[in-house]
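Catalogue entry: protein

Sequence with per-residue tokens
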Amino acid sequence: MNALRGIKWPYALIALLAVAAVSVGVLRPQWVAASTSTSTKKKPGATARIKQDLPPKLFTDAEIATIGKEATAQRKTADTLFAKWTAQHGTTRDDKAFTAWAAAQIPAPPSAKERTAELHQVQALAKTRTAAGKKAATWLELHGKKDIWKLYLHDQRELIPAAQGTAEKAELKAALKLAKTISDQLAAKDKQPAPFVLDPSLRPDKQIKPGAKGPYSYPSRHATRAAAAVTFLSALSPHRAADYEWMRAEVLYSRLYMAGHVTSDLTAGTFLGDLIGDYELAVSGH
């Protein structure tokens, strides 16, 4: 582990962004540092996109605590299961074989009765929505797919040799791509309608047509990507794991809040993402 990962690096615009961070009360110190180095010559990357769209006030720790704990609980089981993969396959990259194996490890969707109970929970949560909550959830839905995780890695890369940083950027990209691929395959197979499809009143802005079956939500793509990123990033900088887990919980809660998913969608996605994160770490030599 590179000892420089824990150093706070000085940037010219830290003071300006720190003021913005205080005003919204959500940016972690290392995230602010990462948000200050951009290029106007290229298509805006994650750093630039978030700098141009700083987060509003996000959800409180109390609000995200339950889903955060449920997400964290998946990790130990995933690590134990992944050890069986490496025992049989070693650490050579084989995305095709791993994709099939990982998909087979994800539990079947909950029963209709259980999913109905989860839908009722989402319906109850929808009644508590506020303008501020909707704003937070919208920001998290947009940037929680990839931008946040790329930005966290950008922060890490500022403190390590360029070649190492370039390799880790490619590794995170591979993990996020694999997360999308496998979660989309499972969603298409299991065909579990999103909560707002089952109850269109939860998201009138989606304009769901009568009789629509999709989009499908088991497992959650957001959750899969977030867990893969957290597993990967935490291995690189363990002392920052709490920040990564906090942001994952924010992203997951936003999906419940705006009826994109029920809890089982998120826990299944988290479990899948943990497996993917472990795989990318193993095949990349970490």
